[in-house]
Amino acid sequence: MGAGHDHAVDVKSKSQRRNLLIVFILIAGFMVVEYITAIITNSLALLVDATHMLTDATGLFIALLAATLALRPATSRKTWGFKRAEVVAAAFQALILLAVGIFVIIEAIRRLFEPPEVGSELMLWVGVLGLIVNLVGLWIISKTEKNFNIRAAFLEVLNDTLGSVAVIVAAIVIATTGFDQADSIVSFIIGGLIIPRTLKLLFETVGVLMGNAPKGLDMDQVREHMLGIDGVLEVHDLHATLISSTTPELSAHVTIEPEAFANGKMLEILKNLQECVAKHFDVSVEHSTFQLEPPAYQKEETIHH
């Protein structure tokens, strides 16, 4: 049963890696085209979108590296393997995107008061081509099994897609009205769209790295439900966290009736505890560890968490 689960995870990771590689090639390739066009047209919106693509290509490369590391097996030193690499990668991508969002807003405000002349026709065609590339990338990632790493990659490409739409809008406005500030305005909007989503992802990934309980798993309810199991007297040192976005882990010290150690009821209690955390809550915790103790043992414990 365990081997089958590992094989399924391996297949998912390989699929994630393949899809990320395809999207990385698309984004990195078009990024070069957009940088050249941004220089020719003097467009901030295009330069911002090209910079998005640079950070996104970097982020996708990190995501690709994390997906590759996730395939490596656990060792006696790295007992969880590289499962948490996706969380670290997503946090790093979020930091990059946050920096880009802040830079875009500052530069857009500056150019709003000092608008340069923008070549709108070439800007429009590149924006349309960029939109097509990004939509293809979004479609590929949307078909990929989700985790923190893939969510970060999706957010990267979604921001690029919004950037391409903004470039098209700005180019049309400039071409029809001569209002060069449109380039700065849409760039400001792009920056404003990047920051909230990025902060949300950053807080979530930092929460995992800090060892917070999985989102959606109420630990008070978990404790209450465990205490309702026949034979359980007390629950302490209850901890839960995420090893990766798809691997929740829970451990606890559970005081049970002393006679359960002699009459064999201990095995039934252990089974009920494992089923409790695996099946009763919206977040299914299949990897759980319980230390079963008689009431007298609490006097021997010197460390409580």
Summarize the structure.
With 305 residues, the chain is mainly α.
Task: Walk me through the topology.
Blueprint: H1 2-41, H2 44-69, H3 85-113, H4 120-142, H5 148-177, H6 182-209, H7 219-227, E1 232-244, E2 247-256, H8 260-263, H9 265-279, E3 287-293
Parallel strand pairs: 2-3
Antiparallel strand pairs: 1-2
Main attributes?
disordered N terminus, mainly alpha, three-stranded mixed beta sheet, 305 residues, elongated, 9 helices, 10% strand
Structural summary, described in words:
By secondary structure, the protein is mostly helical. It contains nine helices and three strands; from the N terminus they run αααααααββααβ. The chain has helices spanning 2-41, 44-69, 85-113, 120-142, 148-177, 182-209, 219-227, 260-263, 265-279, and strands at residues 232-244, 247-256, 287-293. The protein has a three-stranded mixed β-sheet with strand order 1-2-3. Helix content is 67%, strand content 10%. Helix 1 (2-41) packs antiparallel against helix 2 and helix 3 (85-113) runs antiparallel to helix 6. Strand 1 and strand 2 (247-256) form a beta hairpin.
Report the portion of residues in β strands: 5-15%
User: What is the makeup of the main sheet?
Assistant: 3 strands, mixed
The oligomeric state of the chains shown is single chain
- How far is the first residue's CA from the last residue's CA? 33 Å
Radius of gyration: 26 Å
Shape: elongated
Which stretches are low in confidence, meaning pLDDT under 50 for 5 or more residues running? 1-11
Number of helical regions:
9
Structural class call reads: mainly alpha
* SSE succession: HHHHHHHEEHHE
If you average the pLDDT, what whole number results?
A: 81
Sheet with most strands: strand arrangement: 1-2-3
